[in-house]
Amino acid sequence: MSPILRRSVLKAAAVAGAATQFGWALGGKDASAADGTDRAGTAATGEPVSVEWLEDGGLGAAPGSTFGVPWPKGVHPADTAFALAAPDGEDIPVQSWPTAYWPDGTLKWTAHAVGGAARGTDRFSLTAGTPAAPAKGITVTETRRDITVDTGVIKAVIGKDGHRLVRSVSRGRTEIATDGRLVLLRQGDLDEGDRGAARWERFDGEIRGTKVEQDGPVRAVVRIDGKHRKDGRRWLPFSIRLYFYAGAESFRMVHTITFDGDQRPGRDKGDFIRGLGVRFTVPMRDAAYDRHIRIAGEGKGFLTEAVKGITGLRRDPGAAVRAAQVRGEKLPDPATWDQRVTTRLSYVPEWGDHTLAQLSADGFTLRKRTKPGHGWITSGGGGRATGFGYVGGVSGGLSFGLRDFWQKHPAQLDIRGAAGSEAEVTLWLWSPEAQPMDLRFYHDGMGQDTYAKQLEGLNITYEDTEPGFGTPYGIARTSELLFWANEATPTADTLVAQAAAVRTPPQLAAGAGTLSRAGVFGGLFAPVDRSTEARARIEDQLDFLFTYYQDQVEQRRWYGFWDYGDFMHSYDPDRHQWRYDVGGYAWDNSELSPDLWLWFAYLRSGRADIFRFAEALTRHTGEVDVYHLGQWAGLGTRHGVQHYADSAKQQRISTAVYRRPYYYLTADERVGDLMRDQVDSDETFLVIDPQRKVRTDPYEPDRNALSVGFGTDWSGLAAGWLTEWERQGPQAAKAEARLRSTMETIAAQPNGFVQGSGLYDLDTGRFAVADRPVVSVSHLSSMFGLVEMCAELIGLIDMPEFKEAWLDYCRYFNATKAEQKARYGSDFGSLLLFQGHSRQDAYAAAQLDDDALAERAWQKFYDSDAYTSDMDWGRTRIEGPDVLEPGWENVRVNSNETALFGLAAIQNLALVGDRMPDRTPE
């Protein structure tokens, strides 16, 4: 058992690590979850793992759920099959596949998909065994022109060419929806002032390739790639995945666009998106009074109407008839109604068009009209709509929903033509009623046309500006949608359940003890433990910080299509405002690893609220803060007023280390794509030199001698290589070779990691070994995932020289200048972030069983910098006229220190929690 895991065995109450030593038995209790419940754990001998829903309600109306489970090294061979059972012993059909392997070839992570058979059950037991087969398994058939997926309830025909992504969705012999397609509205120039001369043009999504990625029996996945096209122009690439589950009447869509338009600062002309949506046609077969519109508002609120309403009329068709229409049931023959209504039905308007527009996080409007060419009337409004609706009739119809609808405003739902033979449904990811999507750089450069001037700008606004670098070209955004093919108009309860599935897709998860005992992510976390006053105090502080940021998102309205998921970097106490408009103090863009703080906080607690917060951050930072096309593909952008504004394009933001937890917990294919894209990101060092503005030595990028830092640069490269290697992807052999060769040649440097950087050869994957020792240490080097990467790699690859080089770095960063000089011939200069680096002291202490290092870890944690013993862990009320909206502030809180405090607290508790000093912070 490694020292990391040995030191993870804290108090008996924590019940973490060392599964074999303690002989975990079937049914043994996992560490307590945040809500006080217990989850059964797993033994290192492969005993069953208990998995539960993150939130109450179970599967609900969702089609299915996919979840990940880690396994200790050596427990399960690569070809192990898995079975899932309910508490009563009933076998639940499950589809399983490996997502990562240990170096010995045994399973490290597995993914598991369940369908409708999991409905109504709160807890499941996963174990090695033969899986049950679904009663109605997924079948996938493929022809030259299309792919057909049959869930046993619905059948979807998916196109391989043209504009129709989903040609049809049927239930039995009834066609519920057709012509599923993408729509893009482009505006070529902007209306400035009162000119109002802008023209729109429509582009349709054109398929370039369709591929079956999974074909059942429980889950099928189809990927569609292409671009939007009008006439001869193709732009705005899209990648769509459609997810189907056995026995489901619904399917899920994950929709990604990558911006490749032309929007140049200082110009009113360019590629401005006016609307971006997903559109379906819905056949309308029923009489107008048997056609129904349902649009969700806030909570369980719904607009409940018919295309031709027979309630509220001057004449009454009968109470039973009215009640049936409101319930969405088929009405009796009009001949049986009060004939004063029947004979005048032709004079009752038919409301064929409906629109819900959510143009801000705080308000939506609803309106309707009879048909084009006639006026709209208001039908309601409210605050935050779910983004869900239904159109159809008693013989069937389509429910549809867009996740994070109000959070990623401006969004919109349209129903058109419901009074005719076909209705058209559009889920607008960007509402055409909003202002066009303007991604131009926010200032004119202010004369910063030389590196010297740009460094001066950095010294006043903390933003690194460079002409041409503040471009959105290549950034992306992913959205999630759900569609149900209903055999009749759903009941009110069914609609509420469907809307809930849109808001919060059900997620199964293993408990914190299971995750910890598997030894994944370097063994750097252990389940929440409040067994002592000192531990409880730190847990309270961690809870305060998470809740504070959760509340600040709402208070400061950190929402919007491109912004949702991220938060701000630093606070301005004079304005009682985060510095949203001050250069590099604005959006955080993963600075100092808040992504890892949040994921580690979830891994040790199992809290659903932390999971959802981290999920939104991962969806944002992996897409918006990173380039996926163009010369900087594979690089991310440093923090700034706009997510792509700063001219520092670096590995430290695009690193796969921030995506790994979400991928392995959910098996999300899109995030898997993002990490795979990083495998060849070492090529980006030919394109851009991260140190170009501060170099004093002559340097030109050379394929065989690229300057690459051992900290923020190499950690990003290593994360991509490690992920590809353990996933056994197409470039696994290359990735493993790159890991081993770079680890070997970093360790061979005269001063190891303290050397700072080396010349990297793209062809051999090795660093040249310097001929003389250099001391080049930055406080940032290990704060972007290097700590976590080294812990994982040392546990996976037996390379004593590398381990020693890393332990040396860990031992000496927080050492005295005299100690540094004695070891390296020179001290490390003026450094910062000692509290964040205390986790390196803790790691070295655990590896070396060194009490002195453990003592220093806690001393640096409590009393060095950042959130020290005198930190104020409270909030102050702020109100108008000092602020726009009333709320709370803690002027001491900033995102750099929050992320590092969180990681240091979590990792120190896991590594040297049994050697905490007998005191608590004041």
UniProtKB/TrEMBL annotation:
Residues 48-128 form the PcRGLX/YetA-like N-terminal RIFT barrel domain. Pfam families: PcRGLX_1st, PcRGLX_2nd, PcRGLX_3rd. Residues 505-916 form the PcRGLX/YetA-like C-terminal alpha/alpha toroid domain. Residues 138-499 form the PcRGLX/YetA-like central beta-sandwich domain. PANTHER family: CONCANAVALIN A-LIKE LECTIN/GLUCANASE, TAT PATHWAY SIGNAL SEQUENCE DOMAIN PROTEIN. This is Tat pathway signal sequence domain protein. It comes from Streptomyces hebeiensis.
